[in-house]
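Reviewer comment 2.1 asked that we show a complete input and output for one of the modelled complexes. We chose the heme C case, as it is the one discussed in the main text.
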Amino acid sequence: MSAAFQPRGAGFIAAAVLSAAVGVGVVLVGMASPSGPNADVPVADGPVASEEYGRRLVARTAELLGQDQADPALRYIDSRLNCASCHLSAGAEPGALTLLLTDEHYPRFSGRAGGMTDIEDRINECMQRSMNGRPLPMDSVEMRAMASYLRTLGAQYQAMGESARTAAAPAALVPPDRAADLEHGRAVFDARCSTCHGADGLGLLATGDRGKGYLFPPLWGPDSYNNGAGMHRVLTAARFVKARMPLGDPTLTDDEAFDVAAFINAQPRPQMANLEEDYPDKRAKPVDNPYGPYADDFPAEQHKFGPFRPIEEYYAAQRAR
Ligand code: HEC
Ligand code: HEC
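Response of the prediction step:
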């Protein structure tokens, strides 16, 4: 457990629910703030307006780019998640899935795409997978706004002091060397997740209007991420869950995080087409990539739920030859 992390009592859960609710309120207040009621009207030129629109797109994606958006041309996503459902505080929070470092990370080689990618390409990967949608045109106002917002976060990170850069999070996950136990995962879900995400895992809408998206996002089902998303990998999900969930009280053990991540990812969700084309070099697939084809003979089930260490060791030996 890192020095910065303070375990919190059960009372904090209620506070977290409240603060999540207040967070939504703050966003709504922001709409009516100095820039006036038309603040959501995108302005293509002028970096300030563009970055601010980008931040809103990341925070309120379901509402601004979802299927209930009034302008059909802006209906880009089929999920009802926000980018900020996973990239907390619209990516401005350090730690798991922060976007503060994104500007530094790109351009970079992507094994999944099989080539060099920049921030815009990476945004579109989350658009098509995490958000179960279609890519934003590179020259669209929305793409330019999101990308300029992420670049602003990079500048913000540069200006942050060392302590602000340090996430208050438990020690990073050390994955258990065994297959995930889905029954135990279900028990963890019932005890630690269902209060917010719903007994059926389908989340809790923010208001009676589905178009406004969720206060507590769905973990599976038609409004959640698809099977090609990074969160659909058990190790990626377990790392996030260990670091962040239950929100405001991230106190799961490695075993609990691993099993509940597997349980979530064993539930039904939207399916993405043409996943066999990912990773032109199949040897570059992460060991927990849940869909084939693979460059090894381990069973598909083991790629989904582990144990992962034998697969890691197999590839380490291949590389050493
Ligand atoms: C369901 C969870 C989820 C949602 C929703 C989501 N992402 Fe992601 N995002 C991820 C995961 C997982 C990664 C991969 C992190 C890794 O490689 O370790 C990622 C990576 C990224 C990266 C690369 C970060 C870096 O520094 O390398 C960017 C940029 C990004 N997402 C942007 C977005 C945007 C913009 C949206 C909304 C359109 C979005 N994401 C929605 C889960 C999500
Ligand atoms: C106190 C309420 C609360 C509890 C309890 C909670 N979560 Fe969450 N969770 C949230 C909120 C809120 C978000 C979205 C973050 C945001 O919008 O700021 C979220 C986001 C997520 C996401 C990414 C978005 C998505 O829909 O896939 C995953 C995965 C997740 N939680 C898993 C879990 C798991 C597993 C547990 C139980 C161990 C859990 N959560 C417990 C409130 C909670």
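Confidence is low (pLDDT under 50) at residues 1-39. We note this here for comparison with the apo prediction described in Section 3.2.
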